[in-house]
Amino acid sequence: MDRFGGLLGIGPWEIHRFEPPALTDRTFRGEDGEFSMVLALAQLGDTMIELIEPLEGPSIYTEHLEDHGEGLHHVACFAFDDPHAVVETFEDAGMPVLQSGNYDGVEFWYVDTADELNGAIFETAANVDAIPKPDATYPD
Hints:
19% of the residues lie in helices and 41% in strands. It has 140 residues and is α+β, with helices and mostly antiparallel strands. The chain is globular and about 45 Å long.
C-alpha cells in the first residue's frame, strides 16, 4: 500500500478479511476451496485498485505468487446486469471458472482468460454494492 500511495498517490485503503464465516461457497479449480485472503481496496479516479494477500489454502493467488511473484494478476468488471450469464458465456467458450466464492452476499468468479488476455485472469461479481464495511482502513 505504501508503494502505491507513495508512487501514485493512491489511498486511503479499505482492508477486508475474506475468510470464514463471511467467506462461503469457495471453489478452486472445480473442487471445494479452502482459501482465504486479505484485500486492500482504493480508488484511483474511476478505477479500483485491489491488492490481495493470500492467507491460507491453495488459490489462484498462491499459484500466481509461486509462478510469477508479485504483479498484475487480474482485471475485473462489475458493471454487468447478469454476471451469472457472463460467467456462463465464458465457460461455453472454453474458459472455465478457476476460483469462486461468496463474501457476505457478494458472489465472485475468476475466469481463466490468461491465454486471451496476455496472462491476466478476468474477475466479475454479483451484488458488489452489498460488500460489508471494511475491517480497517490505511492509513488510519
